Amino acid sequence: MSGVFSPTRAKIKERTLRTDKWWLQPAITFGVLFSFVIYATFRAFEGANYYKDHLISPFYSPCLSEACVPEATIFGWTPVSAEIFNFALSPALIILIFPLGFRMTCYYYRKAYYRAFWLSPPACAVAEPHEKYTGETRAPLILQNAHRWFFYAGLVFNVFLTYDAILSFKNIEGQWGHMSVGSLVLVVSSTLLWFYSLSCHTCRHTVGGRLKHFSKHPIRYKLWTWVSVLNHSHQQFAWYSLAGVAFADIYVRQVATGAWTNFYFF
Amino acid sequence: MARKINLRIWRGDATDGGLQDVQVEANEGEVVLDVIHRVQATQMGDLAVRWNCKAGKCGSCSMEINGKPRLACMTQVAAYGEDETITVTPLRAFPVIKDLVTDVSFNYKKAMEIPAYEPPKDLKPGEARMEQVDVERSQEFRKCIECFLCQNTCHVIRDHEENKKSFAGPRFFIRIAELDMHPLDILKNRKRTAQEEHGLGMCNITKCCTEVCPEHIKITDNAIIPMKERVVDIKYDPARMFAGLLKREKRS
After folding, report:
1. Transmembrane stretches, by residue range (chain A) (predicted)?
2. Which of A73, A229, A255, B8 has a C-alpha 20 to 30 A away from that of B106?
């Protein structure tokens, strides 16, 4: 018997005496994240319906595979083979490890999924079901320390997705200066991704958090204070950007399959 | 206006114990510690409860109220429904001594393991000078009243007694962060010892420490995560390790 049931602790048989709905938040988190994972997996393997009339799904950008629709590539650059070991590789599978890695190692998402999926703990002062616990000290969880590498990769992805959002200001004939609902969706999605990345704890550390003397680095101190303001809402940006990316993909897919028509404002 | 409330208090010691129901009067504006004192004065003369300032500043009356780690002197009775039973137990992460009093000496042992502030060798008394922006971060951590609610709620030790030997806990991570961010502290290996000796890597940042802190110190965001990032700087960042190697090569 360990933990709250250890011999020296107060003898209380309940795992928790909390009377509030402590299970609600992890349950919602589980439901939303699980739904996203199922949808993202389906889309990653689908390998189709990711491009239509200058709109590209964020799940497939940058499109680097020889299997990519030519218009979805960056100036026709396709350095990755369409097959690996005779297995047709969806263009999304090549790149998704980076945004996925960034979110999986994100300090906020760690809290969310450790609570909701691993119940470690399910909520504060609610005894977890595991016999042993070593935290992030050994494989595979020690890999959480790679967060900053995914952060750097995430910034590069944000540049590509911003470029995609700019390209969406073309009409079907390829003329600039037009805007559709799709443009709006991609702009909102990429903007939310910038906010999510720039509010990240690693970003906060990189711009100035690692310093001992703020007074000797006034510009980095200023940057740190700005990022700190964003960092307060990192959790919100994590959810909003996830919803933004999911909706952008759904929108592009619906337009690509012909289910929805991309309405042009001008 | 006074009203009767249902209170359930854990009574016992390390060998045995259980919850006992009492009815007690509560006046408007009273906190849980007030009604515990009334029970002690009128119904349970030998009820053990640790308290001191009754102002949320000494950190003595830490206990669990309806399962949540809280200061009894800062918890309004009115926060609970009229028909709701208020259950009061001792902290569940530490050995119980009697009734609501626990043995928190684990924390004092851990405090002694943290290396003290180390100023530059040539700094004479009265010569220390620091800019406000350099000390602001550390000042947040100085608000700690050592109530040990963060230690109590941290599942690393609450749910795993065996981790107590290798895990200092959130209260001491803010102490380490405070010193590591201190502009005049010259001790070089705080980051490494935080990870290798004080168990920083065991924290999975589920933020319960921040949730229960009565001083609203952002323990996770401002101390633990920055310390984890500092550990990444020295242990898990190949680019910085390579740059450091080049620097040393250049110097030699």
Report:
1. 21-42, 84-102, 149-169, 175-196
2. B8
